[in-house]
């Protein structure tokens, strides 16, 4: 491998280490309680190395959030993609979003600090790019098939997405193990109410 190739590998390793440690610290302490000195110490790199990859703490957080949202989006797409039937894709994807979003690190980074740090509009745009489009696509398909009555899909997708985000936040604050099962059952009943009778 050439010197250039080794340097690129080292830069990629440094970036991965920074993202990994920043995600761990942000999830554990929250954005406001984490300093860049904490991140570089945990990653074992210099502040110069951090600034080579990220211009600020907010830029680092945005990159961490992007990874978290992409991971949740992949999980949703994989769960939905395991089904041929569009209705089953909708329900499996929604259930997986709810389950994935209740993980403490996902909840804190994606649902609590994300909108607060980036602002609602930027956070929403990232959410849309990562997973919300899957919801819109399957709802469009179900409307076209007549499984769901014809209606504008954009408000329906936002209502479902907002409800699932709120449920994930609530689940993160509860202590009863039965709450996730109860919430999943409530989501099934809510989705079933959308179907054409």
Question: In summary, what is this structure?
Answer:
It holds the Pfam family TetR_N. The protein has 197 residues and is mainly alpha-helical.
Detailed description of the structure:
Keywords: DNA-binding, Transcription, Transcription regulation. Residues 12-72 form the HTH tetR-type domain. Residues 35-54 bind DNA. By secondary structure, this protein is mostly helical. The chain folds into 2 domains: 1-55, Arc Repressor Mutant, subunit A, CATH 1.10.10; 56-194, Tetracycline Repressor, domain 2 (Orthogonal Bundle). Helices cover 81% and strands 0% of the residues. The chain is built from 9 helices and no strands. It has helices at 3-29, 36-43, 47-53, 57-81, 86-101, 104-118, 120-145, 153-173, 178-192. The longest helix has 27 residues, at 3-29. It is elongated. The relative contact order is 0.10.
Number of strands: 0
Low-confidence segments, given as residue ranges, are: none
CATH superfamily of the largest domain: Tetracycline Repressor, domain 2
Overall pLDDT metric: 92
General form: elongated
User: Judging by the overall fold, what is the CATH architecture of the largest domain?
Assistant: Orthogonal Bundle
CATH topological fold name of the largest domain: Tetracycline Repressor, domain 2
Q: Span from first to last CA?
A: 64 Å
Pfam families: TetR_C_41 (PF21351), TetR_N (PF00440)
GO molecular function: DNA-binding transcription factor activity; transcription cis-regulatory region binding
InterPro entries: Homeodomain-like_sf, HTH-type_TetR-like_transc_reg, HTH_TetR, Rv0078-like_C
Organism: Streptomyces marincola
